[in-house]
Amino acid sequence: MHMIWVMLALLAVFIVRVVKGPSIWDRLLGLSVISTKVILIIVFFASYNQIAYLLDIAIVFVLLGFISIIFTALFLLQRIKAGGK
Amino acid sequence: MQVVGDIFVIIGTVFILFGVIGLMKFKNFYTRILVTAKIDTVGVITVIIGIAIKHGLSFFSMKVLLLMGIVMIVNPLASHMIARSAYLSGYQTEGQDDKAKTTYNEEHV
Q1: Which of A6, A77, B35, B95 is disulfide-compatible with B85, CB 3.0–4.6 A?
Q2: Which tens digits make up the pLDDT trace of B29-52?
């Protein structure tokens, strides 16, 4: 149970980095790290309460996080390339 | 078995703590993303192996190992995409630190 509190503390550290991050890329990196931490929290919770179907949620969350980061990065690439001219 | 699993979980958490330190210490974006993404994935894998060991051979640990396989594939891909688009858009390509004026006009972002 205490592991979830450890993970939440780590989340707070990464949120500081996302807010402080000089550029938007640091924020994207922070997003990717935070989503990994949330997955770990789900897995800890599922293993602590012996609930198996929670892991499906974690798997879906991994894939969704991945897709959102990929398309956000692609979108930013076009926007900055066009805006940078 | 429980103790072995707990040891793995603690080792994974220590890895993640290294990632946090790395995230705060490095000044250049690319070194930061290299460290964070790699340690992040390794931390998740270690923790998930620990949890799989804690649950022995059961339906639960099979599903956890599947999750580990997915994370192993997905996480590096996402980090690569972030670094690639950051590089292509010319952010800190000359290796200057965060304080230096970035090469592209940051006001738009």
Answers
A1: A77
A2: 788 888 888 888 888 899 888 888
Q: How far is B4 from chain A (nearest CA, A)?
A: 15
Q: Are A81 and B88 in contact (CB under 8 A)?
A: yes
Q: How far apart are CA A78 and CA B23, in angstroms?
A: 27
Q: What is the pTM of this model?
A: 0.82
**B68: CB partners within 8 A, 6+ apart:** B44, B45, B48, B49, B52
Q: Which residues of B touch A44 (CB under 8 A)?
A: 51
Structure tokens at B47: 């923790």
Residue B109 DSSP symbol: -
